[in-house]
Amino acid sequence: MTLFLPLIFVLQYTATEASNIKYEEGYIPSFDDLVTDCSDYFTSICEKKENKRKMRILLGESMGGAMVLLLHRKKPEYWDGGVLVAPMCKIADDMKPPQLVIKVLTKLTKIIPTWKIVPGQDIVDVAFRDPAIREEVRNNPLCYKGRLRLQTANQLLNVSLDLEKRLQEVTFPFFVGHGEADKVTDPTVSKLLYETASSFAKMFKLYPEMWHSLTYGEFTENIDIVFQDIISWIDDRISSGNSRLEREQKNANDELHTNTSSTKKLVD
Description:
By secondary structure, the protein is α/β, with parallel strands linked by helices. The chain is built from 9 helices and 4 strands.
């Protein structure tokens, strides 16, 4: 096995504030703005001189998995791979209100976007399998609890519907892992992503009996299994070489050769 020392950078989603609305915890006025923020930040890290020759692999869980796919869509040739953990390509039907209620809530979003009135199951109860982790999440002041705000729910639903319709557009190498007993995001759509995506290198793992939060909310022995699979996949990607860097170097050499030839002709 190749030994690799990853540089890990994490972005806390920015506090959201509309011009006429004070900051509201858990409020997402625009998912597109989140994608732009993440893209700008991670790109700035990758473009630093000391990181230029390093591989660029994104990892996201749940909504973060959706973010990874949207970052790839924004810059299809930029990222060397993605690790998708229970990605939000489709919100589980049991987590969504009835269609009639969704239509009503969508209209209300334009009037009271920050109100926390979206009905649904308690995400802490259905996402985190280990009771000790559940209690830890409930006691963490940085973790959002309670019902979703209207605009946040609207944005998440629209993103998941959009991703589900465009799975075939995914072209970068990826690993997707999903808990078989996930009640938050739909594991069958992760399998469909694996089957439909245009990527040349992809892997799908379905974990029996595991819930939604695979990297934090499961029992320790299960978390270890998930991370072993993730690390093994990343190791294989690194061992296979950096095709993106090779392509960039070839393009740079071709451009240099073209410019040199043009200069020579002018001199002649």
